[in-house]
Amino acid sequence: MSQQTSLTYAKVNEDVIRMLDKPTVKWLALFVPTLGVVGFGLFCFLYQVYTGLGAAGYRHPVFWGVYITDFVFWVGIAHSGTLISAVLYLFRANFRLSIYRIAEGMTVFAVLTAGLFPIIHLGRPWFFYWLFPYPNQRELWVNFKSPLLWDVFAVSTYLTVSSVFFFVGMIPDLAAIRDRVTEKPRKILYSILSLGWKGSNWEWLHYTRAYLFFAAFATPLVLSVHSVVSWDFAMANLPGWHTTIFAPYFVAGAIFSGLGMVITLTVPIRKIFSLEEYITLDNYDGMAKLIIVTSLIVGYAYGVEFFMAWYSGNPAEWGQFYYRATGEYALFYWIMVFCNVLIPLPLWFKSVRRNIKALFIISIFINIGMWFERFNIIVISLSRGFDPASWGIYKVSWVEIGITLGSFAWFFMFFLIFIKTLPAVSIAEMKEILPVPKKEANGHE
Amino acid sequence: MNNQGVLGIFSYVDLTINAVKKLKEEGFKTIRVFSPVPNHEIEDVMDEPESIVRFFTLFGAMLGASCGVGFTVLTSMDWPLPVSAKPIVSIPPFIVIIFELTILMGALSTLLGLLINSRLRRNAPVDMYDPRFSEDKFGVMVACDKGNVEKVQDILNSHGAEEIKVDGI
Amino acid sequence: MGFDNPGTGMLALGIANVIVSEGLSNRGGELSGLLSGYAIDKVSEATGVSTDTIRQIAREFSSTQPSLAIGGGTAVTSTNATETLIAINILNYVAGNIGETIDFGRTINTDGISQFSDILSLVDSMSNGGVDILMVYNTNPVFTLPKSAGFEDAISKVPFVVSFSSFMDETTEKATLIMPDNTTIESWGDFIPSTGIHGLIQPVMTPVFNTKGTGDVILAVTANIEDLKERYKQTSYYDYLRESWKTAYSSQAGLSFDSFWNKALENGGYYADVQPVQVSLSGGLSGALPEAEFSGDGDYFFIAYPSYKYYDGRGANKPWLQELPDALSTGVWDSWVEVHPDTASKLGVKLGDFVVIESPQGSIETQVYPYPGIRPDTVAVMIGQGHTSYGRYAKDRGVNPVGILPLTTDKLSGGFAWFTSKVKLTKTGKHAQFVQTQYTTHQHDRGIAQEVTLTEMQKGLPPVDHSLPGFYPEKEYAVPLGNGDRPQKCTGCGACVTACYAENNIPFVGKELVAKRRDMAWIKIERYFEKSDNKAGFETRFLPMLCQQCGNAPCEPVCPVYATYHNPEGLNGMVYNRCVGTRYCSNNCSYSVRKFNWFQYKFPEPLNWQLNPDVTVRSMGVMEKCTFCVQRINFAKDQAKDKGRDVLDGEVQVACAQACGSDAIVFGNLKDTESKVSKLSEDERGYKVLQMLNTQSSITYLKKVKWDKA
Fold first, then answer.
1. Alpha carbon of A234 to those of A112, B3, C327: distances in Å?
2. Among A412-421, B72-81, C409-418, C530-539, where is mean pLDDT lowest?
3. Distance from CA of C277 to the nearest CA of A (A)
4. Of A13, A180, A217, the CB nearest to B103
5. Complex ipTM, two decimals?
6. Which residues, numbered 48 to 67 in chain A, qualify as contacts with chain C under a Cβ-Cβ cut-off of 8 Å?
7. Residue A52: which of C586, C588, C621 has the nearest Cβ?
8. Which pLDDT does position A2 carry in this prediction?
9. Burial class of B165 by CB neighbour count within 10 A (0 to 12, 13 to 18, 19+)
10. What pLDDT score was predicted for residue C231?
11. Nearest-5° angle of CA C337, CA C341, CA C345?
12. Burial class (CB in 10 A: 0-12, 13-18, 19+), A412
């Protein structure tokens, strides 16, 4: 990347580690209410456990609602983190460098959030561990034919691998922090976390190799995880779910929503911590282009679903899609189309792609639109299955809203802790794109 | 007996590389270079053998795949419960599990390989470090016997080392 | 309710006139004097039935033998009810049905039943202070009589009222002394519903509460009355009942009394042959039938009809019946007024809007249910709700239409005439969700409830092939258990639904939860309205929908914990204690027949007594569904094993099939090619619901046959 910069190795260290200074009043003003909302979400969950799942708004035949919507939403958010850190790493796309740590953090925290929902939505959440294969006194193993079991494996693998990836990528930076901080407790903490990293050529040799493998694993993983999530629906025979387009459609949607969330998160951080030199307009330009691509894929999928429903001549299938666009939930459907297909269109213009305010607003709409996309797929399809006698409308309850808000707070809580404890921009990798300090200026690179 | 360590601290990569080249020419085998970033030129001049982390990765991934096959097939046969007229051992759904376990165990054994190789295996008698290596300085550490300490110091000095430290056991 | 308009009698005579005048029958010539007054044009104008239709009915009715015209329902509850029945029987006479399909032998038993006029004179004497003691047994006149009868005021003038009742109802509330009676299932008793049928009632359980049968109370009292001591020697009502049967029947049966008694207990009574009663047409039939008289100045005829669930209101305190969806509206736990959709749009009201129904005798306010099966000039409200007492499930629920009826009688019989009122309908502007269990009346081309016309049947139907090519190899286990459902025979009554509640410990959930579609019924009656060829008309189809026990069950593979799986008999087993409640099975059930325990449902005392000990009471957070009464299957298998044989066809009776009055549901072993269900499943009318999904459902439905002959 050829950019004019005043950054030096030392300044990178200074700028990044400065972010970890003692929490300010502003930070606390964000953190404390966030904790409060997490607490409210926890209360809602406990209330639901106590009274039964009826506390949520489910009504026959809509047996999945906001919780699974939240699950897919958060898994989707997670995806672009891995995309930015692993896939773009393999493609050597340098615009990832300044944002990938934030994106990876987002991945881990989003998976941590997503992972709660399959448990929250259970009828008997206290038996959630029955979904894991372990030898038990019932002598019963799990049903590997169930897409939900695939979810268990995919999501737990994803959490493990993305956490490892997140952590390994951070080791050199943790060492840099260790070398800089002076207070005893922090020194000890970062010494442990950095695993004694010294930056020797021997360490770098294995490190770069291992990092490449992690990236190589994470890439198919990220594709598989959202494919598996999409199969939760596509494997069912329900009209509106049972379609082969779901895996690529969901993966594109996941990246789309994740990029939206990355922009939503980085814009304020960039402003607050004055990281304009790190997270540059070029970075945003690159992400905006990816948003256009994924938005087009998602928009294409919306169209194909309708076409296939009509073309199949299946009354249940066509009935479902006609209902989506015209029925009781039509507002949600058109919100989705508006946010995901129309709103990103201005990004075709370079001036919009490089306008931080415009990007921020667009990213918020993308987050909303993608939440509704999952809601529409799940709830509208379930509302109108094969048997007209069973049709019914789902209404969200306050408990579900509380838990959803709690999940956002839970995610931001981790994020707020993250930006105060861990390097939000990769110190080592930022240095890779800076000019190598050389006595003789004519060296290559 | 390489029981002495000499550490030279540099500000510039090219000077660091020249120093390493010279030391290698002089026959010093146990050299370690510290840098805040991975650097291809350093890697080239050091000319270390290919990292064996890849074997950990390969082995882990293969183990994961076999575990996936064994686990899904054996647990399904342990108590055959027919569902929806599908075969008890139904390969297509199991592939998903096998795939995920391949990735999981491959990634975990890569981590293990990284930890083992970069930290547990040592090739120098003493461990020298300077906190500035994680910021913007480069370091060259040479393990040598007592008699060669001065020679090394000279080489480092002449190649622009800003600071030199000596440590022994 | 085809012809529930004031002109039913006219229509019958109009049809008879066509038959006679066109010479379709060799009878009825002597009636031409009467019938000539019912020319087809005149009848058509008065009844709104087209001349073509009348003519078509007349031809089919006379040419298709045997035929039968039945009078009943709301058509014969007006001031000319008896005359209407006479008119209907004239039609039967003309068509040659007397002595063929009608013999007048077995008629409703009216011995010892008071006339409506007796009740009115009782009310009179009560009001005048002429009654010192009033004993009320097994009746609730405060609720069931029109307010205009004045019973409520009159009873307060009686100094001593004794009520023998199992429940605190409106009348019992006014009693001076309450003698809590055993309920029907705790009592001995007998009754004669119609000629020749002597029913014997035996208790199925010992009394739960501290109650005493009314018969026992009376015997205990007579023992202390000198004059009666000798007449009633028995100390218990059981002895008295046995004794009374001894004198009445022992000689007739030709058996020892003990065997006669035991046989009667086993059969639920004693059934005597009834000889047909010879009737002849008396002369002097001429002139015109009187027209029905209506009071009130409203625009709409008002029908208050007895509900098949609550009858006159006595069923309203049973939550099973409250939660049972009405066959046509599928409404539960409430009242509504049936209004024709055209009338509703004229009034500017839609489903769930509240209207006030006002007659000179009073007014009631209830929700609108637009129903195309009612005439645009008529509205109807079901009797049975609107209790002000009668327990926690009946009280303050819905409205009682009897309250606003005028006190009118049928001139000829003296019985109460229900259908004599014209009412005003006023929109209130209030709206609430109308709590139903099925919100659509259309099949949306899904082919759920199919039909075939008689013409098609006669041409022959193509052979049925239930198999579709599958993705997986042929399975090594089979689908031996199956159900055959015959929607043709289904009346939509829902007896199967309640039987299933009883057998399988299904909790009732109440109106608030049914509104959220959280009712727990394992079997439901789907009802669809289909447009008929006749443009004004429509046709109702009922279809019992329950777990199809699919061979390729969509619910099974998606369960992560094997809580539902395929058992060796081909049932979709449901293991409650394995279930963690992901509810994926229900999402993937194409028939939407799985129910989820959203809460820990309660069976409050004394409803805990209804629980079937053979069936698990499910806990919060697990899925449940129909299992084809697997407990009964296992019981029959154990019994057969003890006897060293296979289970016989018909030995296992699932609760829904057992309760079905019209034998619309048949259960049996599909692997036994001789079983009734196997034969039915190969019927040419057989089809599987949603067959294109290849779920290999084990339930075969038989298409409804539609009459299309002219």
1. 24, 65, 36
2. C530-539
3. 48
4. A217
5. 0.90
6. 51-54, 58-61, 63-64
7. C621
8. 42
9. middle
10. 81
11. 100
12. buried
- When scoring C565, C572, C693 by the number of chain B Cβ atoms within 10 A, the one with the most, hence best to mutate, is C565
CA-nearest residue of chain B to C475?
A: B85
> In a mutagenesis test of the A interface, which of C490, C583, C599, C618 is the best target, namely the one with the most A β-carbons within 10 Å?
C583
The verdict on A226 touching B (C-beta cutoff 8 Å) is no
Per-residue b/e over A134-158, b at no fewer than 16 CB within 10 Å? eeeeeebbbbbbbbbbbbbbbbebb
Which of A143, A161, A202 lies at the smallest CB-CB distance from B103?
A161
Report yes or no: C644 and C624 within 8 Å, Cβ to Cβ. no
Q: Averaged over C113-136, what is the pLDDT?
A: 89
Alpha-carbon A132 to chain mean position? 24
Whether C420 contacts C674, CB under 8 Å: no
- Cα C216 to Cα A135, C164, C230, distances in angstroms: 63, 12, 16
If DSSP codes are grouped into helix, strand and coil, which group holds residue C541? strand
Cα–Cα–Cα angle for C661, C667, C668, rounded to 5 degrees: 145
Q: Which two tokens stand for residue C204?
A: 């199925």
Burial call C176-201: b when 16+ CB within 10 Å, e when fewer: eeebbbbbeebbbbbeeeebbbbbbb
Strands C699-702 and C686-687: antiparallel
Residues 6+ apart with CB under 8 A from B31: B20, B23, B24, B46, B140, B141, B142, B143
- Could you report the per-residue pLDDT of C558-616, keeping only the tens digit for each? 999 999 988 888 888 899 999 999 999 999 999 999 999 999 998 988 889 889 999 99
List, for residues C52-104, the tens digit of each pLDDT value.
Answer: 888 888 888 888 878 888 887 777 888 888 888 888 888 888 888 888 888 88
Residue B48 to residue A424: CA distance in whole angstroms: 32
Contact A424, A418 (CB under 8 A): yes
Helix (H) or strand (E) holding C50: none
Gap between the Cα atoms of A226 and C123, Å rounded? 77
Chains touching C (at least 3 CB pairs under 8 A) are A, B
- To the nearest whole angstrom, how far is the Cα of B162 from the nearest Cα of chain A? 13
| Nearby residues of C64 by Cβ (< 8 Å), 6 or more positions away | none
Whether the full predicted model's pTM is greater than 0.80, yes or no, is: yes
Listing DSSP states for C126-137 in one string gives HHTT--SEEEEE
Residues of chain C neighbouring B87 (CB-CB closer than 8 A): 472-473
Structure tokens at A238: 């329900």
CA atoms of C155 and C148, how far apart (whole Å):
14
- For residue A329, give both structure tokens: 């939930």
Sheet of C197-201: strands edge to edge?
C189-191, C197-201, C269-271
CA distance B141 to B122: 13
Distance from CA of A10 to the nearest CA of B (A): 6
**Of the candidates B81, B87, B93, which has its C-beta nearest C565's C-beta?**
B81
Contact C506, C495 (CB under 8 A): no
Strand C269-271 with C197-201, pairing: antiparallel
pLDDT over 50 (residue C314): yes
Which residues of chain B are within 8 Å of residue A160 when distances are taken between CB atoms? Answer: 104, 107-108
Q: What are residue C190's phi and psi, to 5 degrees? A: -150, 160
B85 touches chain C (CB under 8 A): yes
Determine the residue of chain C that is closest to B79 in CA distance.
Answer: C562
Provide DSSP, C196-237. TEEEEE--SS--SSS---HHHHHHHHHTT-HHHHTT---SSH
Residue of B nearest to C567 (CA): B82
**Nearest CB partner across the interface for C440, out of A53, A124, A388:** A388
Residues 6+ away with beta carbon under 8 Å from B88: B76, B77, B80, B81, B82
